[in-house]
Amino acid sequence: MGRLSRRAFALAALSTLTSASGASAAPVPGVAAPGAPGRRAGEMRGVWLATVQNRDWPSRPGMTAAEQRTELLAHLDTAVRNRLNTVIFQVRPTADALWPSPYEPWSQFLTGTQGVAPGWDPLGTAVEEAHVRGLELHAWFNPYRVANHTDPARLVASHPARKHPDWVVPYGGKLYYNPGLPEVRAFVQDAMLDAVRKYPVDAVHFDDYFYPYPVAGQTFDDDAAFDRYGGGFPNRAAWRRDNIDRLILEMAARIRRIRPGTRFGISPFGVWRNAATDPLGSDTRAGVQTYDDLHADTRKWVREGWIDYIVPQLYWNIGFAAADYATLLPWWAEVARGSRTRLYLGEALYKAGDPAQPAAWQDPAELSRHLALARGHAEARGHVFFAAKDVAVDRIGAMARVVADHYQRPATPRAESAARFPVPDLGVGAR
To answer: What is the rounded CA–CA span in Å between residue 315 and residue 367?
Structure first.
């Protein structure tokens, strides 16, 4: 097609979106039918674009720069066709970079070899082309994961983890930076914030990995760091939570200084604590609790207003006994109520049509029911779908059903200016 101006392209994209087909979702008791809502301001309609292990993009390592670029733009165009407004692009999957970074090597998921330049700038291109299409681009970082193996020799010779082996802890078949070391915390912030300085990203986004998920029979060996820095805490768990709290506080403050207006969001595992563990927790029986197992006090971050938005990964169907979507939605809405932190909901599109999943996920209307249920909670300001490949393939038409039932018109991702939501003083050491 002929080359359009940026404004013309954005206007054309918004006015000629392809309509998805499908009947309206079955009504949920106590929830209004989805109908055809009008244009909604401040509604998140996001998709995660994962690069780790070539999950969504690039579809394989070693593609040419032109092939990679074509695939990336296709994902952006697919987001527009589905009337989404935000792409959350994973740009630091394993202590590496999808932009020319002075801190860390080029990601192996681009060329197949860590440290080899791909011949173009994926993050710079993604930001520019997303904005051309009227999309927000959130840069998604994993703070502490170094590698999906335990052999430092497989890292490029210049990798910081090889220069500082004392920073690294092997655990569960992977390598991690040790969150208990102040020098590690400073370094990973510097590495991530390099992208914020260089590109007008709309947000910085962390996923659910802080301390690693527990692995039976294994211990995360941070004894030396705890001996050195943990003396003022009642136990190791409290010290670990403080380490993650400091990461969040410091990142929030530094983002605000470097690029005012850029938001900071986190997508944690969907259960903070079970009510059986803590009366403030949700009526769930989850095998993982972020507070206890990942040492991430996600509820506090929302209540204290440390982050701009939270996207709990509510990757369970309505009626799932151990962690019911219909139970977790109002719990998170209550947590967000009265805070400055926006609540969006993480949706497991990848489960729709997967034969290994329960019967609920074989129904194309399951996700549409989630959105209908969420409309009954004013605090729920939108949804993010995992992940881009699944939006494109849409195995059983679950995404098309969401679009038909809920996304008949475009929506802007932000309603209020930053001035209306002043950020508290998050200086280093604030508590």
So the answer is: 10
Mean pLDDT of 395-424: 77
Asked if pLDDT for residue 342 goes beyond 80, the answer is yes
Mean pLDDT for the stretch of residues 282-310:
98
Nearest to 188 by CA among 206, 215, 212: 206
Residues 237-255 have a mean pLDDT of 98
The pLDDT value given to residue 149 = 97
How far, in whole angstroms, is CA 316 from its chain's centroid? Answer: 17
pTM, 2 dp: 0.89
What is the pLDDT, as a whole number, of residue 54? 98
**Average pLDDT score over residue span 270-299:** 98
pLDDT of residue 415: 57
Q: How high is the pLDDT of residue 24?
A: 33
Three-state SS letters, the chain: CCCCCHHHHHHHHHHCCCCCCCCCCCCCCCCCCCCCCCCEECCEEEEEECCHHHCCCCCCCCCCHHHHHHHHHHHHHHHHHCCCCEEEEEEECCCCECCCCCCCCECHHHHCCCCCCCCCCHHHHHHHHHHHCCCEEEEEECCCEEECCCCHHHCCCCCHHHHCHHHEEEECCEEEECCCCHHHHHHHHHHHHHHHHHCCCCEEEECCCCCCCCCCCCCCCCHHHHHHHCCCCCCHHHHHHHHHHHHHHHHHHHHHHHCCCCEEEECCECCCCECCCCCCCECCCCCCCHHHHHCCCHHHHHHCCCCCEECCECCCCCCCCCCCHHHHHHHHHHHHCCCCCEEEEEECHHHCCCCCCCHHHHCCCHHHHHHHHHCCCCCEEEEEEECHHHHHHCCCCHHHHHHHHHCCCCEECCCCCHHHCCCCCCCCCCC
pLDDT score of 418? 38
Pairing mode, strands 203-206 and 86-92: unpaired
Angle between helices 366-374 and 398-406 (to 10 degrees): 30
